[in-house]
Each structure stands twice: as structure tokens, then as C-alpha cells.
Specification:
- This protein is of the alpha+beta class.
- It folds into two domains: about 110 residues, Uridine Diphospho-n-acetylenolpyruvylglucosamine Reductase, domain 3 (2-Layer Sandwich); about 100 residues, 2-Layer Sandwich (Enolase-like, domain 1).
- It has eleven helices and 14 strands.
- A five-stranded antiparallel β-sheet has the order 4-5-10-6-7. Strands 11-12-13-14 form a four-stranded antiparallel β-sheet, with helices on both faces. Strands 1-3-2 form a three-stranded parallel β-sheet, with helices on one face.
- Helix 9 packs antiparallel against helix 10 and helix 10 packs antiparallel against helix 11.
- It is globular.
């Protein structure tokens, strides 16, 4: 691993200014960044750790507000999250292992833009938005607008995610299921997140495409027909065909298409039976 300087900015403006320096990278949990640096994929000259910025609060006040530096373990153990957004709690229990969840952060998990991550498709299904800070101030955008391709996000070099905001669930119900080729906490071959909101359904596919992908054709088929078994079968077939599914070490494209057909139906059944 190449040598690097480590800075610990004490304020958000300082952190943003430091990111304007050439070949600098933000450091949150570092669980992915350090692996990429050890492999020589990234060779930043400077890392800026964000732990002094006070961005680790998890707060529910109608909406769920998650600081970007909140650890995945803190989110998993949060009582308000378990009570109001239980699909997040359930998903986190099989996200990697507890050692990683103790260190990895919500902002880092979203910004990393690895399509195999569990959190992005679920956040997209839940209509989550990210608050982004940069030299021009703050802006908000949907989580789905973060992703441009494989390991590629839409953040400028000197921008940081500071918060994730998720609307109240109300009577909406959600679920996330994944299929792994080895242990339950392994990288998924396919992950599917579903949100049932009355007659409407949001479906997001992860791990099988180069970025988390909304399955619009399947959503259209299921509109007003969430309880119709025939519509569900038709939607599962449409879901497998509408996305550009890619082969990787977790499975061939043909194998993943079959997983999409099966797991869309399983995830929708899971969401329909959820409390929230």
C-alpha cells in the first residue's frame, strides 16, 4: 500500500476544503477503501477522516434521519429504526459480519457504489434521499441519483454525503431479500428490495446489474394487482427480462435471471406479510 497523509478535519467546511486538494479521498469506515488501497486500485496521497464532524446521529422525528458517519451496527441496533423501519434492521443482520458493521458507515456504503451492496437497493425502494455538502452549500437528491455505473457515483470530488433521510413508513410495507452463493452474509448474486404502498409497488434490483436498478415494467404489471398470483408471475418474468443482467463470480447472467424470477416473488410475499 502506498504511503499517505491522514487529516482529521474539525468542521464540515474544513473537510470540503481539504477534499479540493489533488489526490485526496474522504475516509469514513474504510472497510472498502483500505482493501482497494492494499490491492493498488486506489493510491490517494491524502485521506481525510470524517469522525470529528458529528455526523453519526440516528434520529426519528416522523422521518428517519441518519448521519452519514453512523455505523451500520448503530443503525441495526437502533430502537426507532427497528420500530418504524424494520426492513432496514432485518437487512442489516445479514450485511457482511458484525465486525464490518461495527466500522462501516452508512454514507460510505452508499457512496462506494458497489452494486453488490445491500443498502443502496433498499434505500432506493424506501424513497430515501441524501443530503450532500459541497463548496456551494447543501443539496438533496434521491439515493438512486447517486449511481452512474459500476463503482461510479455522481458526487463531485469535493462533495460529501452528510445525511440520509427516509420518509415515515405509515402503512407502507417493505422487504429486502438476497441470494448468496455461500454463507448468508456473503456478497449477493441477486438482491431485491420491495416497497408496497397501497396499489403501488417499488422494486429495486441489486447485485445483478452495474448499479441498483428500478424494475419499472414489473412495477407497472403489479400496480393494483399486488395480491394477484398471475400478475406476480408475469411481473417476475418481466423483471428478469427488463434489466441488463451481468455475469460475475457470483453467477452467470442466465442463473441470475432465474434468481430474479424467484426472489421477486419471495420478496413481495415477505413485504406483504411485514408489519410496516
Amino acid at each position: 500500500m502506498s504511503p499517505f497523509e491522514l487529516a482529521e478535519p474539525a468542521s464540515l467546511p474544513e473537510a470540503i476544503a481539504l477534499l479540493g486538494i489533488e489526490n485526496a479521498r474522504p475516509l469514513s469506515g474504510g472497510t472498502a477503501l483500505m482493501l482497494m488501497m492494499k490491492a493498488g486500485v486506489l493510491r490517494p496521497a491524502r485521506l481525510h477522516h470524517q469522525h470529528e464532524l458529528g455526523l453519526d446521529e440516528v434520529r426519528a422525528d416522523g422521518e428517519l434521519r441518519i448521519g452519514a458517519m453512523a455505523s451500520l451496527r448503530a443503525l441495526e441496533r437502533s430502537a426507532p429504526v427497528k420500530a418504524g423501519w424494520p426492513a432496514i434492521t432485518r437487512a442489516l443482520r445479514t450485511l457482511s459480519n458484525v465486525r464490518v458493521r461495527n466500522v462501516a458507515t452508512v454514507g460510505g456504503a452508499l457512496a462506494h457504489a458497489d452494486p453488490h451492496m445491500d443498502l443502496p437497493p433498499l434505500m432506493m425502494a424506501l424513497n430515501a434521499q441524501v443530503t450532500i455538502a459541497g463548496p456551494a452549500g447543501e443539496r438533496r437528491m434521491p439515493v438512486e441519483a447517486l449511481y452512474a455505473g459500476y463503482l461510479e457515483n455522481t458526487l463531485a470530488r469535493n462533495e460529501l454525503i452528510t445525511q440520509v433521510t427516509i420518509p415515515s413508513m405509515g402503512k407502507r410495507r417493505a422487504a429486502y431479500l438476497k441470494c448468496t452463493t455461500r454463507s448468508a452474509d456473503d456478497w449477493p448474486a441477486v438482491g431485491i428490495a420491495v416497497l408496497v404502498d397501497g396499489d403501488d409497488v417499488r422494486i429495486v434490483l441489486g447485485a445483478a446489474t452495474d448499479r441498483p436498478t428500478r424494475l419499472a415494467a414489473a412495477e407497472k404489471i403489479l400496480k393494483g394487482k399486488v395480491d394477484d398470483p398471475r400478475a406476480l408471475e408475469e411481473a417476475a418474468r418481466a423483471a428478469a427480462e427488463e434489466a441488463v443482467i451481468e455475469s460475475d463470480l457470483h453467477g452467470s447472467a442466465a442463473y441470475k435471471k432465474q434468481l430474479v424470477r424467484v426472489y421477486l416473488q419471495r420478496t413481495l410475499h415477505e413485504a406483504r406479510g411485514a408489519i410496516h
